[in-house]
Write a structure and sequence with these properties.
The protein is an alpha+beta fold and 257 residues long. The protein is built from ten helices and seven strands.
């Protein structure tokens, strides 16, 4: 079983002992393998979590394609550091520094994910609900958003995101360089963006923005996950969680229960 979002927003205060609860979501959704167990698992999780209602999803691909951290983290890292040249005097705020450029990249990425999900849904022959990033954020953080009118304002005004800094490394001269070895790239590219890319290849959906993100992240991590013609690199696909890494090379294979 897997959920499309975490129920809580937390930060560690003391490892293994205490966390700060920043906020929680009113509703998340769960998918299961096999699919017919989703309603049972949703009821159990709702009872366990208490403050969050858990609703069932019809297929695990709904979780896979939900535009969550695997879309949010790489797009903001790209927005902040795509033209990075030298260390900064201060670490930048992460979510609150979402500007028009970053919001546009988020929107383009979200639209590509929706195109992928629509193509998979057509192949499945039954609904596979996957929201756009802005709609998902409005639903998940409805009590935390001061201004939910645009993609930019959703991230800038989210109370749960206030004061959170980008992952940085302190340099010898006391300045700050981006931490390109942080999970926002090392996890959310091979086990997030590359998964989206892999599904897109199976349904022949073009993904120019996702390609751009994977290529840029690969350059700063020295991981060329894409070939020159923007296909998943067969030499590195085994390091990702793309369907192709598990021998799933058709849309029928990823839809089977």
């Amino acid at each position: 079983a897997g959920t499309n979002q975490l129920p809580y927003q937390c930060r560690i205060l003391e490892y293994g002992a205490a966390v700060e609860l920043i906020g929680y979501k009113r509703q998340i959704q769960v998918a299961t393998e096999p699919r017919d167990q989703a309603e049972n698992v949703a009821r159990v999780l709702t009872d366990l979590i208490g403050v969050t209602h858990v609703a069932p999803l019809p297929h695990y691909l709904c979780v896979t394609l939900t535009p969550a951290n695997q879309v949010i983290h790489p797009t903001i890292m790209y927005g902040l550091f795509h033209d990075y040249v030298e260390p900064l005097n201060e670490p930048p705020l992460f979510y609150q520094n979402t500007d028009d450029f970053t919001a546009d990249v988020m929107t383009s990425t979200s639209n590509e994910v929706l195109a992928i999900s629509h193509a998979v849904q057509q192949a499945a022959g039954y609904p596979l609900p996957v929201p756009g990033l802005d709609d998902m954020m409005r639903e998940m953080y409805q009590d935390e958003l001061v201004d939910a009118s645009t993609m930019k304002s959703i991230f800038q005004s989210n109370r749960g995101y206030q004061g959170l800094f980008a992952p940085m490394i302190r340099t010898d001269d006391g300045r700050f360089a981006p931490d390109f070895g942080y999970r926002y790239l090392t996890e959310d590219i091979p086990r997030g963006q590359c998964v989206l890319k892999g599904v897109a290849e199976l349904v022949d959906v073009p993904t120019p923005t996702i390609d751009q993100l994977i290529r840029w992240a690969g350059s700063v991590m020295d991981k060329p996950y894409l070939t020159a013609d923007n296909r998943l690199n067969p030499e590195l696909v085994g390091e990702t969680a793309a369907p192709q890494a598990f021998g799933l090379n058709t849309v029928a294979q990823i839809l089977q229960d």
